[in-house]
Amino acid sequence: xxxxxxxxxxxxxxxxxxxxxxxxxxxxxxxxxxxxxxxxxxxxxxxxxxxxxxxxxxxxxxxxxxxxxxxxxxxxxxxxxxxxxxxxxxxxxxxxxxxxxxxxxxxxxxxxxxxxxxxxxxxxxxxxxxxxxxxxxxxxxxxxxxxxxxxxxxxxxxxxxxxxxxxxxxxxxxxxxxxxxxxxxxxxxxxxxxxxxxxxxxxxxxxxxxxxxxxxxxxxxxxxxxxxxxxxxxxxxxxxxxxxxxxxxxxxxxxxxxx
Length: 259
Ligand SMILES: *[C@@H]1O[C@H](CO)[C@@H](O)[C@H](O)[C@H]1NC(C)=O
Ligand SMILES: *[C@@H]1O[C@H](CO)[C@@H](O)[C@H](O)[C@H]1NC(C)=O
Ligand SMILES: *[C@@H]1O[C@H](CO)[C@@H](O)[C@H](O)[C@H]1NC(C)=O
Ligand SMILES: *[C@@H]1O[C@H](CO)[C@@H](O)[C@H](O)[C@H]1NC(C)=O
Ligand SMILES: *[C@@H]1O[C@H](CO)[C@@H](O)[C@H](O)[C@H]1NC(C)=O
What we know:
The chain is mostly beta strands. The chain has two domains: about 1-20 and about 190-259, no CATH class; about 25-175, Immunoglobulin-like. It is about 15% helix and about 40% strand. The protein has helices at about 1-15, 240-259, and strands spanning about 20-25, 30-40, 45-50, 55-65, 80-85, 90-100, 100-105, 110-120, 120-130, 150-160, 165, 170-175, 205-210, 220-225, 235. α1 packs antiparallel against α2. It is globular and about 60 Å long. The chain starts with a helix and ends with a helix. The relative contact order is 0.21. Mean pLDDT is about 75; it is low at about 5-15 and about 190-245. The protein binds 2-acetamido-2-deoxy-beta-D-glucopyranose (NAG) (5 copies). One 2-acetamido-2-deoxy-beta-D-glucopyranose binds near residues 27, 30, 177, 231 and 232. Keywords: Membrane, Signal, Transmembrane, Transmembrane helix. It comes from Amphimedon queenslandica (Sponge). This is DOMON domain-containing protein.
């Protein structure tokens, strides 16, 4: 019982600290960047940049399971955005991927305000989507629960850029080092009203894995606090809130250890 109480206490605090209402990720080696901003209760904007050419595409995908480059050949369930530009014609498509060999255009396209532009060997993809998708065909994943984020790039587009007929296997692959967790974003101050603290950038990376809520299930909670800037994703827009959350967690841990 005591163990459960501790878990509930920690789980509650972690839920608060998981709010990543805006943030960014950069992999300098790969020249990939991703920025996300929750713009209202059920809307999030992504700006994604990756290497590309006038014959290639790039894709960003959400997954509820950890994905490796190798596992893409097996069965997966990815909610993906495929994009490309040949300089004159471009596409940004809502697609559903069941393996690297098989992806389909979603019956319902749930992306808005899309654009893809190629410049200096980099494709910049801008799209807005619902956090909880209204998709009626089970071809989208909701972002109000933590999801893994992967990306692929440098794959050839088959057919025309106005209406691609297929996508060759890409050579570039990457995964964000943390899950994207947009739950509870309507509860935190809008990023635009928060002045980022100027000193000591705190990189917070949290993972919260919870099994089914049955008593016999097992749960684990882990947190990593890195005091200096590292090339990992950094939830931004609420630095003070983040620090407060981390303090709360530390206090909770201290209390729990004394129960
Ligand atoms: C960046 O990409 C390289 C090559 O795939 C990978 O080894 C590295 O871990 C990535 N870094 C981050 C921060 O994801
Ligand atoms: C992304 O698209 C939105 C909506 O069209 C626009 O307001 C915003 O300026 C764009 N951002 C970038 C970096 O292109
Ligand atoms: C880009 O794709 C469009 C549509 O397929 C095609 O009409 C156009 O010629 C292509 N442009 C270049 C530069 O390849
Ligand atoms: C976060 O959202 C979940 C699901 O909507 C809700 O049950 C929970 O109470 C919320 N937590 C906070 C701290 O608002
Ligand atoms: C990325 O996040 C960091 C940390 O919150 C922030 O300082 C920086 O301005 C962000 N960069 C962009 C391009 O949004």
